[in-house]
Amino acid sequence: MTTITQSAATADTPRWMSTVTDKLAPQALARAGQALLLPAIGIALFLLFWQLVAPQVNTSLGAFPAPSDVWEQAGQLWREHSNERERAERFVTMQEQRNARILQDNPDAEVRIRPYPGAPTFFSQIGTSLITVLSGFALATAIAVPLGIVVGLNRHFAAAVNPLIQVFKPVSPLAWLPLVTMVVSATYVSDDPMFEKAFLTSMITVTLCSLWPTLINTSVGVAAVNPDLLNVSKVLRLSFWTHTRKVVLPSSVPMIFTGLRVSLGIAWMVLIAAEMLAQNPGLGKFVWDEFQNGSSQSLSRIMVAVIAIGFIGFLLDRIMLLIQKKVAWNQ
Amino acid sequence: MIKPHLELTGVDMAFDTPNGPFLALDKVNLKIRKGEFVSLIGHSGCGKSTVLNIVAGLLQASRGGCVLDGHEVNTPGPERAVVFQNHALMPWLTVYENVELAVRQVFRKSMGRKEKRDWILHNLTLVNMQHALDKRPGEISGGMAQRVGIARALAMKPSVLLMDEPFGALDALTRAHLQDSLMTIQQELNSTVIMITHDVDEAVLLSDRIVMMTNGPAATVGEELTIDLPRPRNRVALADDPTYVHYRQAVLSFLYEKQTFPGKGDPVTSIAEPAPSEAAPAAPAIVVESTPLEPQQRAIA
Questions:
Q1: Residue A6: pLDDT above 70?
Q2: Which of A83, A159, A231, B39 counts the most CB atoms within 10 A of its CB?
């Protein structure tokens, strides 16, 4: 008897309701709770440990910042950023009004439009860092993927290039940087430079350090194309270009993307060091300036930067993963 | 006398190995008529695939050669389409796109856009795969993927269709089904087919002639058996047919009485399955398989 009424009840409930009740079912709730709960516990324990231990570590700039100090400085940085933006807006509107007045008096007058001269804030520095790392990464990809294809296709070329790859791959960005700086200063001479030298130096250092995983993975992927597929290509008499475009490249896309993800991770790590030394106005420079500044808040502000760097690196990897899922055929 | 459609004359194949040259094939002679269905049968590692790859142009004979319609075969080409054992479809292309890749390459200039589309669909319909045009090879079964591989090969309008154990990786029921389809298609198109197989029943059922190869090294054509059974053939009716049973008996006796120990004096290799690489059969099979195969050797294996 009870079973009949129950089944009748389920038949009457609309679909959306049953999906909601499915989601609210104790088991599903428990699963979702576990998925969120355990990481939350981990983070909470870490914060607690940090809060307790940090005050014990004394430095010449005061005690090591606890999470509460870092949180406070994060808010402070955000306020500084909003204030600065307000000032910048005011500067722009004032300039526009002044220019409009001048043009009203004399339509032929030449008006000058100057950018706002204020110092970059933490958030604009994040922007600079992102632009720098993406430019360096894009340049590395543009070099590494075609080069990797050639290395993978030609065994003789691979043998010639392999020792160079093995030797240059483990070089630290800090070793490259002085050389890159000198070369950029000597070669990039122009009265109206399109890029800052510091930007170029950081970007090129990022490129030099991050192209290796993509290069190696691309060449391995290209060399490992299924021999049956190569035979199909031979039987069809595909031209070199069609063969590369239609068989080799798609076949190695999964390997290339694995390389790209590793490369982007390295690029982001290298960037911070490069910016510190090259004084590119990004997160690296922020950390360096705060370190040199040495106020009582400096350590907390550096800690904000550390956490921001971590989060951005994580996000960049997630974005690459999403692109990989869209592009790669084996996902 | 009429010239044969395809002729192999005195084909030797020697591979370079660290232990010096290894003779895989020794003076293989074979003549095939137009529209003939020929099976190559023999123990693992006897060089059947090497023969097929020479006809395909994927390997170059060390001595002797292969002539198709009066032209010597030196390079691979679509007029000798190959059906590979593991379908060899591009995993990133759909069923339709896989056939399209071949059709666009082979009939680049000679067919219009609409004509190409019709031709692709025609061949996929021929193998009964018109229902899965937008599926990727990973989303269909092995038997279906092999059908598409056959459709791709047929779409090249080949003079000879080369099949390298086309049904070897399939389960028995799917295999029987595909064999029937292949028989129908072959009769309809009157295509010339060379098929490699391990399966005696498959060879007798499908072929006009069975070419039995001796064991390597220095493998060659041992015996030839003309299968004079009327077409269309029905596997169930033939099972009791005395002629069929006789042919079957003849092939079995060749394989299991006259050619028992492949690798001559090294019975270990005869148990080894899959085939040890032809390039170094003197070594025990396990050792051979543990060494990474060079691309050229992989093409043979």
A1: no
A2: B39
Residues A236, B58: C-beta atoms closer than 8 Å: no
Choose among B259, B289, B295: nearest CA to B273.
Answer: B289
Res A13: pLDDT: 57
In a domain, A224, yes or no: yes
Q: What predicted TM-score, i.e. pTM, was given to this entire model?
A: 0.78
Please give the DSSP secondary-structure letter assigned to residue A247.
I
Residue B279 has pLDDT above 50, yes or no: no
> How far is the C-alpha of B62 from the C-alpha of B26, rounded, in Å?
10
Chain B positions in Cβ-Cβ contact with residue A246 (cut-off 8 Å): 90, 101
Domain residues for the domain of A32 are: 2-56
Which candidate in A154, A225, A232, A239 is best for mutational testing of the B interface (most B CBs within 10 A)?
A232
Measured distance CA(A293)–CA(B35) in Å, rounded: 88
Top CATH class of B6-79+158-300 equals: alpha beta
The 3-state secondary structure of B216-260 reads: CCCECEEEEEECCCCCCCCHHHHCCCHHHHHHHHHHHHHHHHHCC
A257 and A182 inside one domain: yes
Higher pLDDT, B229 or B4: B229
Q: Same domain, yes or no, for A211 and A323?
A: yes
Domain with CATH 3.40.50.300 in chain B: 6-79+158-300
User: How large is the ipTM?
Assistant: 0.81
pLDDT band at A31 (very low <50, low <70, confident <90, very high): confident
| Nearest by CB: B88 against A232, A250, A329 | A232
Closest CA of chain B from A235, distance in Å = 5
The CA distance from A202 to A279, in Å, is 9
* CA B65 centroid distance within chain: 18
Q: Could you say which of B92, B105, B299 has the minimum Cβ distance to residue A329?
A: B92
Q: Taking the CA of residue B136 as centre, how many other CA atoms within 13 Å lie in the half-sphere pointing to its CB?
A: 10
Please give the distance of CA B299 from its chain centroid, rounded to a whole number: 13
